[in-house]
């Protein structure tokens, strides 16, 4: 925020959070919120463009080019983007927990070469390189239709582009 407490617009090439100005008198810009008041308050920012206004926080991180075109870059929070879909890590954790009979399961997005995914955490720095982690790694083999263990040979083929996910 600037010295007046307002949000600072991003410059071309700079990632920023997509927000939508709320105007309760405009049916296209109104926001009635969620059933949960706490969920609603997490999605609204105040004094964004001018003192006293409100804006909806989309959770989408975009980058604008010099011509004003916007490009999706990432999601904020515990989600990752895969094949054009936002995937909830919590939802995947729940499914894996039931399938594997494990109480504690951690799911996180990793940078896959060619996807331009922003790396954010230590786990993402490890990526899916089997030499960098002691975790068991799996990948979805689309030809066979099920998950297979990820070993160094498959990892090398994925990174070289010889094998696609």
Automatic annotation (TrEMBL):
One GO molecular function term? Answer: long-chain fatty acid transmembrane transporter activity
InterPro entries for the chain: ANL_N_sf (IPR042099)
Q: Which GO terms describe its cellular component?
A: endoplasmic reticulum membrane; mitochondrial inner membrane; plasma membrane
Tell me the Gene Ontology biological-process terms attached to this UniProt entry. long-chain fatty acid import into cell; medium-chain fatty acid transport
| Keywords assigned | Ligase, Nucleotide-binding
> Its family?
Belongs to the ATP-dependent AMP-binding enzyme family.
Top-rank taxon of the source lineage equals Eukaryota
Can you say what this protein is called? SLC27A1 isoform 4
Q: Which Gene3D superfamilies did the record assign?
A: N-terminal domain of ligase-like
Ligase in keyword set: yes
Using the record for this protein, list the coiled-coil segments as residue ranges, or answer none.
none
